[in-house]
Amino acid sequence: MTKQELYERLRARMRGEVVLDRALAPLTTYRLGGRADVYVEPADGDDVVAAAEVLSEEPSTPLLVLGRGSNLVVSDEGWPGVVLRLGPSFSWVHESASGAAGLRAGAATPLPFLANWAARRGLAGVEFTIAIPGSVGGSVKMNAGAHGRCMADCLDQVSILNVATRQVESRSAAALDLDYRRSGLGDDEVVLEASLSLSREDPGAVRERMEAYRRHRAETQPGAAQNAGSVFKNPPGDSAGRLVEAAGLKGFRVGGAAVSDLHANFFIAGEGASAQDVRDLVAEVRRRVNERFGIDLEPEIHFVGRFDDGVAR
Does residue 127 carry a catalytic annotation? Predict the structure, then answer.
C-alpha cells in the first residue's frame, strides 16, 4: 500500500486529523528530524480504534506513537510510516471517583500540568514530574522519574489500546514490567489513560517541595536550549553526567550538536544541527567514556527512523 492509499483509508475512517507528509521537528523538544509519511491525531477513543483497524489491514506499516517528543530524536529522513499522536481530548485530569487519594489522567496530559493540578488539591506524590516536559502516556511507557521517584512509585492502573488486536484493556502497574526508565509496553500499545495512587498533604507543603524541584532543574539543567533531557541512563552506583564530565567532554561538539557546559548528560542542538549530528555525538561520547572508564553508557533518548549507521527502529 502506498502512503497515499494509506492516507486515504485513514481519512475515510477517522474523524480526527490525518495529514500527509507532516513535519515532525516541531513536535519534539530537539526540533529536529524529517516528516512522517502519514500523521494521525485521533479525535477520541473510538478514533484510535478506527486508526488501529486500518493499520491492522496493513501490519507491515511502521507505527510510531508520539507523545510530547521530549526524549526522542527523529531521523533527518523522517518516519517511513504512520505517526500517531493523541490530541487535546486526551489531555485531562480527574480526582479518583472512589474518594481515595489519587487521580486519573488522559495520556496526552502534560506532566507539569499534572503536578500543578495535584498540588492545588493537596495530592502528594507526583511533584517530581513538575519539570519533566513529557506526557502522562510517555511517562508510563518510559517509567519517567526525577528526584528519587518515578511513575512506578505512584502508578496504579492504565488503559491501553493494543493496535494489533484493536482491543482496549486495563492493566495494573504490576503487569507493566516497570524498571529504570523502561516498561514492558510494546511499540503497538497505546496508553490512553492512567490512574495514580497518591496521598493527602497540606497543599502548601506539596507546592513548596514542587517549587524546590523546579528551582533545582533551572539551576542545573539547560532549560531553554533544544535538547531531550538526560541522554544516558545512570549506570549502577554512578552518574552518567559525572562520567561524561570526567572524560573531559563538556562542550564537546559534533557538527551542530554539543555536550552542555551546564550539565554533561544534556546534549544541545545548536543552529544548523541535524538529527544525525546528535546521533553521532551520542555514539562518540559513549565510545570515549567506555574507552576511558570501561563503562558502556546506555542511551535514555530514543532514535527513530533511518540514520547513517542503519535503522534505529
Answer: no
* pLDDT tens profile 119-130: 999 999 999 999
Please report, for residues 26, 107, 138, the alpha-carbon distance to residue 111 in angstroms, rounded to integers and kept in the order given.
19, 10, 10
Active-site annotation holds for 68: no
Residue 299's pLDDT is what?
Answer: 97
* Residues 15, 50: Cα–Cα separation, whole Å: 9
Active site residue 230: yes
Prediction pTM value: 0.93
* Amino acid identity for residue 172 in this structure: S
C-alpha cell at 234: 545512570
- Number of residues written out for the chain: 313
Rounded CA gap, 32 and 30, in Å? 5
Strands 79-85 and 63-66: parallel
Active-site residue, from 135, 159, 230, 260? 230
Instruction: Judge contact between 81 and 62, C-beta under 8 A.
Output: yes
Return d(Cα 226, Cα 32) in angstroms, integer.
9
| Angle at 207 (CA atoms; ends 206, 209), nearest 5 degrees | 70
> How is the beta sheet containing 35-41 ordered, strand by strand?
17-23, 35-41, 79-85, 63-66
User: Which of 262, 237, 250, 257 lies closest to 288 in space, CA to CA?
Assistant: 250
pLDDT at 221: 87
| Segments of the chain scoring below 70 in pLDDT | 224, 310-313
